[in-house]
Amino acid sequence: MTWDVIVVGGGIAGLAAARELEKAGRSVLVLEGSPEVGGKLKRADVAGHLVDVGAEAMLNRRPEGVDLAAEVGLEVEHPVLARSRVWTRGELRPLPRSLMGVPQDTSALAASGILTPAEMERVLAEPGLPPLELADDEDVSVGELVDARFGHAVTDRLVEPLLGGVYAGHARDISARAAVPQLIRMAKEGSLLEAGRASTDTTASTYQAPVFAGIPGGMGLLPERLAAGLTVRTGAMVRGLERGAVGGWRLLVGPASHPEWLEADAVVLATPSHPAARLLADVAPVASRRLDAMEAASVAVVTFAFRAQDVRALDEMDASGFLVPPVDGHRIKASTWSFAKWGWVREAGAADGLAFLRTSLGRHREEEALQRSDEGLVALSRMDLHTAVDLTAEPVATHVQRWGAGLPQYAPGHLDAVAAVRADVAALPGLAVCGATYDGVGIPAVIASAQRAAREVLAPAGV
Ligand SMILES: Cc1cc2nc3c(=O)[nH]c(=O)nc-3n(C[C@H](O)[C@H](O)[C@H](O)COP(=O)(O)OP(=O)(O)OC[C@H]3O[C@@H](n4cnc5c(N)ncnc54)[C@H](O)[C@@H]3O)c2cc1C
Asked: Can you tell me which atom of ligand 1 is nearest the CA of 443?
C-alpha cells in the first residue's frame, strides 16, 4: 500500500506530527527505529515505580504541550515546589529572579552571595553602558553578550547553570538569537538590568499561570497515549529515502539482510539532526550538510530511590533541587528533588516509604565525563550529593539513563542554518522536517515544529 504520509521517528515530534495528519484525514504510518516510542520522553522502573528518566516537565506558558496532553485525555499537574538553588562558592544559594540567568532582582542577587561585592558592583554599573550594536543578520552567543554587559561572573555562575539545564551546553557557544532572543532586543534598546527590573514588576501581575506542568504518572505517558491512537512500527530503522518513480517517496527500512521498501505520498522527518542528514544526503544535499554540521550534547540522568527518612533534611530545605555552574568543578550539573517538586512522585513513593530524586551529568564536548560505568556515574553523583547537601545514605535503588547526543546545540547562526535547511527541503514537494533540532528543544516548541511540518505536507502542493 502507499501511505499518504510516513513519519520517520516516534519521539514527541513524530507522534505529534502524525496526530495532526490523522486529524486531517490522512493515512499515516510512524516508523520508529528503537524498540519503543517516546524518544526523550521515557519512563523506567525504579524500585518498583515508573518515573521519568528523560524530560520531566514542560512549559505551561505555551499552549502546545498542555493542549496536546488534554487532547489525549491526560491531566497536567504543576510543581508543588519549583524553587531551585545554585550550588556555588561552597553553598546552596537561592536562585534570584532572572531571565535565563540575567539578573532581574539585584537585591536578591546581592543577598544570595553568588557574586562577590566587586562582581556585584560590575552588575550594577550595566545601565551606564551604551546599547548593544548588532546588525539584524548578526548573532552573538549568550555568554558573550552577558560577559560584555555584566562581566564573566554572571555568565559563569548564573547563565551557565540555567542554560546547562536546558541545553547541556556552554553559554559562550549558544546563540542568543535562538535561545534567548529577548536579550538581544532589550540590549539593543538599552540596559538589560533596567529592562529586567521592569519585567519583574509586570511578571508579578501579568503571569499568574504556573511556569511548568508535568503529567501525573510521568511525561512518558504522553507519547504512550499518542501512539495508542496511531499506526506505529517500532524497531523500524529507516536507512534510505528516495523520490518515487511517479512522484511520492520510497523509504528503505530494516536491516541490510532483510531490506524492505515502503511508499508514501509525503514524508515527515522527525529524527535528530544526524539521522536526518543521512536520509537527506542524496535528495537535499544543502539541508543535509547543514544538519550534519550541527552538534549535540550527551547527557545522563541518574535516578535514585532513597528511604524517605534519609532525605528528610532535604525536604526541610524548601527547595526543588539545585543547579551547578561548571566553574566550580563539580561533576553533576543539576539535581532535581522529584519528591519535593511533584505531588504525584511524592505520593508514588510514599506508599513504600521511598523518595525519588535525580542528578544529571554531561555537557557539550565533555563526553569523557560519561565514559564510565553506570556504577561510576552513581558514585560520582553520590559524592556530589554528599558534598552539596550531606546526603550519605545508601539508596534503595538507582537507575542510569544515558542520552547520547541527546540535546542539540544551537550555535550562533543557528536560525540561518535552520532557514537554509527548511528552504532546501521546501523545494521538494511532500517533504518536511521537525523536532528539537529546529525551533527550540523544549517540548512545546518541539510540538509546534511538528504541527508546522504537518501543515507543510498538507499544503496544496502536498497531500
Ligand atoms: C535528559 C533530558 C531531559 C529533558 N528534560 C526536558 C524537560 O524537562 N522539559 C522539556 O520541555 N524538554 C526537556 N528535554 C528536551 C526534550 O525532551 C526533547 O527536546 C524532545 O523530547 C525531543 O523530541 P524529538 O521528537 O524531536 O526527538 P527524540 O525524542 O530524539 O525522538 C526522535 C526519535 O527518532 C528515532 N529515530 C532516529 N533515527 C531514526 C531512523 N533513521 N528511523 C527511525 N527512527 C529514528 C529515535 O529513536 C527517536 O525515538 C530534555 C531532554 C533530555 C535529553
From this structure: 11
Instruction: Report the nearest-CA residue for atom 48 of ligand 1.
Output: 39
**Distance (Å, rounded) from C-alpha 184 to C-alpha 152?**
18
Residue ending a domain, among 157, 175, 206, is 206
Q: Do 363 and 288 have their domain in common?
A: no
3-state helix, strand, coil in the chain (%, to 5): 40, 25, 35
Helices (H) and strands (E) in the chain, counts: 19, 20
**165 with 223, same domain?**
no
Q: How far is CA 299 from CA 121, 164, 365, 367, 404, in A?
A: 35, 11, 11, 8, 6
Q: Looking at residue 205, what is its pLDDT?
A: 41
Closest Cα to atom 22 of ligand 1: 436
Residue reference for cell 539513563: 401
Per residue in 136-166, pLDDT tens?
989 999 999 999 999 999 999 999 999 988 9
- Ligand 1 contacts CB of residue 407 (under 6 A): yes
The reply to whether 443 falls in a domain is yes
| Dist CA 241 CA 259 (whole Å) | 13
**297's grid cell:** 550534547
Q: What is the pLDDT at residue 371?
A: 93
**Residue of 271, 361, 403 best suited for mutating to test ligand 1, as the one with most atoms within 8 Å of CB:** 271
30 backbone dihedrals φ, ψ, rounded to 5°: -100, 130
The number of domains in the chain is 3
195 with 329, same domain: the answer is no
